[in-house]
Specification:
- The structure is a single chain.
- By secondary structure, the protein is an alpha/beta fold.
- It is built from 14 helices and 13 strands.
- The strands form 2 sheets. An 8-stranded mixed sheet has the order 6-7-9-8-10-11-12-13, with helices on both faces. Strands 3-4-2-1-5 form a 5-stranded mixed sheet.
- Strand 12, helix 13 and strand 13 form a beta-alpha-beta unit.
- Helix 1 crosses helix 2 and helix 5 crosses helix 6.
- About 3% of the residues have low confidence.
């Protein structure tokens, strides 16, 4: 069976091939133990001999030469990474012939083995401006954190797989906004309540949330609604931001699809605007946001849209979403401010984009490179909720990024 698999090294330049061979040798030397999988191998790698960047570079070379391989990276324990190398049925003999040292089996894959270290995730509340804000936290408390800001109509549960993949090594914090997820949902001012649901107000609460948790230096992950919230905070508190990860969070006019423009036009005073927003708050619409543009629906767990809809259907929650939808136009007015902040600060920037997003076009992801030329852009053949389908590809990219930016000292002066 192995004869049907070919590693096309001609896809690499001479310099790349030399680097590929060097990295292959280092990885083979750093392999501590190998576990046999059904269609491949899982290798525990000594990170004192091979860096995460080395592994990511090698995987990139392998994907170009051997596109039939599937890869995965996860932290096994302190100083040890697990590299999963697998593929279609019959690929194992080919792996053994290409990488004899890596594929030397010393232990069967065991879900209870030492390489299956899972981090302890904490679920907490903190009072912020009279609102009980729910948040998830994982990782070493002394580490520079990654603050993850969720999108519509979701909450912090959308980051659950990243918490498992990265939490043993990095500190992650993900709150639910007021009116979302498990946080309090005070009655909106539009119905006589006490809380004004605007993006300015959400940013105010999240800024105070950071102060309450003593977050004075962190990397920022923004997705969808997280963009308007996060970039407001970054513009106000540039000294807090160690780096930015953007995942389908738009800040450019060219990133707006016709569907997005129709949504944004639903402002206050527009006849029938509230009714149009309510059409987006049904189970059918919520499920559609998860499935539109994906490569394979089988890779999308129904948990996400089911939990999102549960929260949307709670008493009073739909009016909160109507208020925020009618306020969305205020974000476009701030695009120039956020773009100027990016040009001025030049933060380390990782852009991850589902290119089939029906709301935010691929051009929106590309546009970040105009203002931050050093930004790293990765496009995925999926829709709006890219993490749902490509978490195994995205998590290693985030890990490499965090290793780099959390080691950069804060600017002074």
């Amino acid at each position: 069976m192995s004869s049907v698999f070919v590693c096309n090294l001609s896809a690499l330049s001479a310099a790349e091939r030399a680097e590929y061979e060097r990295l292959t040798g280092r990885i083979e030397s750093a392999t501590l133990v190998t576990h046999e999988l059904d269609n491949g191998y899982a290798c525990d790698i000594d990170t004192s001999q091979v860096t995460l960047i080395d592994l990511a570079t090698w995987i990139n070379f392998e994907r170009r030469c051997c596109p039939f391989f599937d890869f995965g990276l996860e932290w096994a324990s302190e100083g040890r990474l697990t590299l999963r190398l697998s593929g279609p049925e019959g690929v194992k003999p080919f792996i053994r012939s290409e990488f004899p040292s890596i594929a030397r089996v010393t232990r069967r894959h065991d879900v209870l083995g030492e390489h299956m270290t899972l981090p302890q995730i904490f679920h907490r509340f903190v009072a912020v401006d009279g609102v009980r804000v729910f948040y998830r936290e994982v990782g070493p408390p002394e580490a520079v954190p990654l603050l993850l800001l969720h999108g519509f109509p979701s909450a912090s549960h959308q980051f659950r797989r990243l918490f498992d993949a990265l939490g043993a090594r990095f500190r992650l914090i993900a709150p639910d906004y007021p009116g979302f997820g498990y946080s309090d949902a005070p009655a909106p001012a539009s119905t006589g309540g006490t809380f004004t649901y605007t993006f300015d107000r959400l940013a105010d609460v999240m800024e105070e949330f950071c102060i309450r948790l003593s977050l004075r230096r962190f990397a920022l992950y923004v997705f969808d609604f997280g963009g308007p919230v996060g970039f407001r905070i970054a513009s106000r508190r540039p000294e807090w931001i160690a780096g930015v990860i953007v995942q389908n969070a738009n800040s450019y006019d060219e990133g707006l699809s016709p569907m997005a423009r129709q949504f944004i036009a639903l402002g206050h005073g527009v006849e029938g605007a509230a009714a149009k927003v309510h059409e987006l708050l049904t189970l059918e619409a919520t499920k559609g946001q998860y499935l539109h543009g994906v490569s394979s629906e089988e890779r999308i767990a129904p948990d996400g849209w089911t939990l999102d809809q549960h929260f949307l259907d709670l008493p009073g929650r739909k009016q909160i979403q109507v208020d925020l939808a009618l306020d969305y136009h205020t974000n476009l007015a701030l695009y120039p401010t956020w773009q100027a902040w990016l040009r001025r600060q030049q933060p380390p920037l990782l852009v991850l984009w589902g290119r089939n997003d029906p709301f935010f076009l691929e051009a929106g992801g590309q546009a970040y490179l105009k203002d931050v030329p050093s930004a790293e852009l990765h496009l995925f053949e999926t829709g709006h909720f890219a993490l749902e389908e490509y978490a195994s590809d995205i998590a290693p990219l985030i890990a490499v990024f965090l290793e780099r930016v959390t080691a950069i000292p804060a600017a002074t002066g």
